[in-house]
Amino acid sequence: MRPGDAAEGLPGRLVNQRPSWAPCAGAEGWTCASVKVPLDYGAPDGRTISVALVRRPARDEEGRLGSLLFNFGGPGVSGVGLLPRAAAEYEKLNSRYDLVGFDPRGVAASSGVVCRDDEGMEAAAERVDLTPDTAAEEAAYFADARDFGRGCERRSGELLAHVGTANAARDMDLLRHVLGDRRLNYFGISYGTQLGGMYAHLFPGNVGRMVLDAVVDPTADTVGHARNQAAGFQRALDNYLTSRGEDPQRGTARIAALLARIDREPLPAGDGRELNQSLALTGIVLPLYSQSMWPDLTAALDEAEGRGRGAKLLALADSYNDRAPDGSYGTQSHSQRAISCVDDAQRPTPAEAKALLPEFKRISEVFGPFLAWDTAGWCADWPVPGEHETPKASAKGAGPILVVGTTGDPATPYEGARRMADELGEDVGILLTNKGEGHGGYTPSNGCVTSIVDDYLLEGEVPEDGGTCG
What we know:
single chain; alpha/beta; Rossmann fold; 10-stranded mixed beta sheet; two-stranded antiparallel sheet; 44% helix; 14% strand; globular
């Protein structure tokens, strides 16, 4: 143990534990375990919770570099569930690293937060307008937000105040310690970049080789993050429309008009279900995350506009909302909201959100209204306070951290990568610009980004700051 370890000051029952690995159900070649962490790092001798892990050992035992910990974002995505499914993308890294995924506190197998049942999720999807137009719709929107938060508090209790990113970063350092790694090697994607930035801020001396891809802007507060996303999704929509040979301004107006028609009269979608405006917007959002899904967006819009049916857009919305064909829902969105609201101290009021509408509509007629209302609705009357106005990421003293930003990224716009590299500090944040589309640059189809990232992680080759792919 050395200064700066999360393990410092913790009781021996936590510091000296070693994971008991056993075969994972349904994931051949992977082993699973759990590690105890303090519920409250301010009271380390008190209650503990378990953090779930999954691992596949490095193939080259002699050349092994240690563990490579992954976080795939959300927040709320289960690393235990996703890493074995995504591992084909990391085969080269698995040659010298143990691939390790985890469910952060409050997620899935790590005391996952659950706020309402499937019936409640379905009712909200069907009845709550996420872009309210009347006083009655506004009242219903905020009443549902309050009900969601109360459900989290009722079902999660004391845990709810302790699921923030800072505590998850402390957990990562304890995981590093019990896994036997001197420094943390880490691959964070989307929200995983916020978590990685927080780790580097809290434990700069423990940073090993760290990659942050699809980067959350660490300088943005609640409103700033929403503003960034409005611009990012509109930029992606413009690029999609341009790829079809359609003028982006006219295409955006066409889609906005379609959403307005659906708001007045939902579209039939089969099996007794309807496509309302909120679900239609969600269905448009999902395929903008990946250029490979743009044909799905075209087919869904053609069906809605040409045939007056919403089945394809509804299927896309169901996928985004983690809704199974039997009507059951996953809980990633519950964890996402709980973590985000514990992180964020800013609490815009309904009146303040409403005042943002003109500006946000100018940014994006399609996405702006939803994101403006969301600034107040997401954490409305949340039962526990937020921890900070903006994420922490300054990491003076850390080694070089590779920051990958994609110019067409809709959810974490490219500008956030520049700001993350700056916030990490001089000679720490190394920016790699990927000129392309989609959420994240490290993909099997992007040989340039994957080659640079692999050389950095496997050989320690730090690329020149400001490099470009594409």
